[in-house]
Structures are given as C-alpha cells and as structure tokens.
Amino acid sequence: MSFTSFLFIICILNFNQFLKAENLGVYIVYVDPAESDDLETFYDSFLPTTSNVTSNSDDQPRILYRYRHVFSGFAAKLSAADVEAMRQKKGFISAQPERMLQLHTTHSPNFLGLNQNTGLWKKSNYGKGVIIGMVDSAVATSHPSFSGAGMPPPPAKWKGVCDSFGKPPCNNKLIG
User: Fold this and answer.
1) Coiled-coil segments, which residues (predicted)?
2) What is the per-residue pLDDT across 38-94, written as a single tens digit (0 to 9) for each?
3) Which of 37, 109, 132, 170 is most buried, judging by how many CB atoms fall within 10 Å of its CB?
C-alpha cells in the first residue's frame, strides 16, 4: 500500500468520526424525584448508554452538577438527540439549554422590568425599608455599586452587626 493510499484511508476514517461526533451543550434537566428512591442512579439513568462523541470528550464526566435542593435534576453535557431520547423516559420533566446572562448589580430595577411610577414597583414603596439578606464571601466592598453614599441608615429594627473581616467597613448600603 502506498503512503498516499494510507493517508487517504486515515482521512476517510477521521472524517467518518467527525460525522458521528455530535455537538454537546450544557443542559439543565429537571426530573420527578418521586420516580426513584436513589436519586444518583436515577439521574445517571437519563444519560445515553453509548456515546457518539469523540474520544477526548468521553474522558470528561457528562453530569456536571446534581441538584438536590429546591428542585431535582442535574446539569449535563448533552446533544440535542440525547435530550430527545430523555423525553421518552419516565420521570423526565424538562431540559433547558444553559444560558449565560449578564450580571446587573447596579441596575436591578431595569433588569427586573420595574419602571418608575408604575405598577408593583410604585405600590411597594420602591423597596424602602426592605432588607435583602445575602451571604457572599466574594463581595468587593470597594466597588462603587456597594457605596453607601445617599443611602439612609439601616432601619431601627435591624439587629445585625457589621463584621468586615479586615476589609473596608460596612456602610449604609452594605450592612452586617
């Protein structure tokens, strides 16, 4: 066999493998937990038994995260065909493709679709006196979006304590 023939066969085999490979995307899959006593095995049962993806993708786990609180499901690398096959399985609720959303820390009313002087936003007194609790160890307290300038002091009913852990101190917007 000549080198050219050998190279041609290798190219055909690689092209065939390319045609078999499916594009994988990350999907959030919701399932009915009442269908199984063992959620780990139940989640795994939704994955395809054979994979049509290329070998370097096979080395990585398909399930990226397993949800056990608030809802039952998992995030996984799946093809559109995998999702279609899941729809036939008992306990399947839905599968949504992962979407990347832009963070909006300083424009929350716009992000939520709240408009000045109309609707629920106006009726709620624009959130005055509302305390939003958040646990986050990665808050950059020096960021302008956390500036307390122009903010009233915390409500008298607030019983929290400012613990800044050596970072800039709390202010009227960022309270402990």
Assistant:
1) none
2) 888 899 999 987 544 433 445 567 899 998 877 889 999 999 999 999 999 999 999
3) 170
**Would you kindly state where each structural domain of the chain is located, as residue ranges?**
20-49+59-97, 122-175
Q: Are strands 73-78 and 63-67 parallel, antiparallel or unpaired?
A: antiparallel
Q: Which residue, among 69, 20, 79, has the nearest Cα to 47 in the 3D structure?
A: 79
Is 82 within 8 Å of 65 (Cβ atoms)?
Answer: no
Three-state DSSP at 141 gives: coil
Residue 95 has pLDDT above 90, yes or no: yes
Q: Residue 42 carries which DSSP code?
A: H
Q: How far is CA 28 from CA 10, 58, 70, 118, 147, in A?
A: 37, 19, 14, 35, 35
Question: Closest Cα partner for 29 from 13, 10, 44?
Answer: 44
How many angstroms separate the CA atoms of 26 and 95, rounded? 10
The pLDDT value recorded for residue 97 is: 94
Q: What percent of the chain has pLDDT over 70?
A: 62
- The Cα–Cα gap between 134 and 37 comes to 33
Interacting residues of 125 by C-beta distance below 8 A, sequence separation 6+: none
Neighbours of 94 (CB within 10 A): 13
CATH domain 20-49+59-97 topology: Alpha-Beta Plaits (3.30.70)
